[in-house]
Amino acid sequence: MPFQPLTVAAVERLTRDAVAVIFEDAPGFDFVQGQYLTLRRDFDGTEIRRSYSICAAPGEPLRVGIKRVEGGAFSTWAQNLAPGDTVEAMPPMGRFHSAIAPDAERHYLLVAAGSGITPILSIARTVLEREPRSRVTLLYANRAVNTIMFQTELDDLKSRFLARLAIVHILKQDAQDIPLFTGRIDAAKLDALFDSWVQVDTVDEAFICGPEGLMETVRERLGAHGLPKDRIHVELFAAAQPGRLPQRPRDAAEAKPTVATIRIDGAAHEITMERDQSLLDAALENAIDAPYACRAGVCSTCMCRVVEGEVEMVQNHALEDYEVERGYVLGCQSYPVSARVVIEYDTGH
Ligand SMILES: Cc1cc2nc3c(=O)[nH]c(=O)nc-3n(C[C@H](O)[C@H](O)[C@H](O)COP(=O)(O)OP(=O)(O)OC[C@H]3O[C@@H](n4cnc5c(N)ncnc54)[C@H](O)[C@@H]3O)c2cc1C
Question: Residue ranges of the 2Fe-2S ferredoxin-type domain (predicted)?
């Protein structure tokens, strides 16, 4: 299926590590709840394709929610999208939905973890708006309050559909009034939730989205509590998708350590570092306040200059050729090659 350019209409920051990207209308991009877009970009000759679930209800502007993955190429790059940018996309695909029946009176159980909320939000809104007699129970797992994507939107949805929407937030780290709602979701916690908070025998359809291990546990416990398999729908955010950028192999035995002098803020720090360690990691490990942001070679926050010695920069999506010629490198992507290096940061002090 052909890719077409989509123009970014707006970008909303959802959390420190996640954005919602809204696209301008495009012919052929009608969608149903729970579907996803496949986006494509060329990173210095390597084509990367990544799928992102649509987090809007049908009829609304096309919108995806992208959470940054540590060291991830596309999700890191996407954090800096801005209105007017274009992204190549395939028309919506996916079967993570069931047909809407306006007269139906069903109970939907939706389970999401982290960025798995994106198709789940689309399903929740569609069901609540288009099946006025159906109700929704949402179990949403996150590490902490500040990593919850779409929190305001979920609160608004709850106020609008008070009697038909129940939301249970499960937070791995942050304590809550009800102890059951804190900690890792495992089989025991699910059993306790299904015994006291969600009556599985009233559930007509379950939709689950998040990391593989958790999804399997939820599916298995729902089955054990009597929900037939054909009513359990799972969307997996598979990690292996076309295109990967090279990352430096971690071979600790590769060579002897390097002695690095790091000049920053008017001080020179001498440290010993392994050759499979990035300049940035070595600086941070030695309590040197080196600047950084994306850690994936996409922004230029960690830019520094090699004054002496040799380093290898494995990825660069930020520096211009003339900067590289003048010795500038990205600290997060650069590894020492010579036994001694001198690195200088221009932090404006
Ligand atoms: C149907 C579907 C829907 C999805 N919907 C969403 C969504 O709505 N929102 C969302 O945020 N995500 C979603 N995803 C996940 C998304 O498609 C990406 O997988 C995710 O954003 C990570 O992509 P990336 O390019 O940033 O990371 P990648 O560059 O693929 O990296 C992933 C991991 O692999 C490591 N890695 C990368 N290259 C190498 C290498 N050469 N050697 C060793 N390790 C390496 C990275 O450090 C990182 O930990 C969905 C996935 C699918 C399949």
Answer: 258-349
Pick from 236, 263, 292: which residue ends a domain? 236
Whether the pLDDT of residue 59 is over 80: the answer is: yes
| 295 within ligand 1 shell (Cβ under 6 A) | no
Domain count, the chain: 3
Ligand 1 contact, 38 CB (< 6 A)? no
State whether 141 and 202 are in the same domain.
yes
Q: Is the pLDDT of residue 44 over 90?
A: no
Question: Phi and psi (nearest 5°) for 20?
Answer: -105, 130
Q: Is 253 in the pocket of ligand 1 (CB under 6 A)?
A: no
Which residue's alpha carbon is nearest to atom 19 within ligand 1?
A: 239
Structure-block tokens of residue 218: 């939820």
Q: Whose CA is nearest to atom 30 of ligand 1?
A: 72
Structural domain for 136, as ranges: 107-236
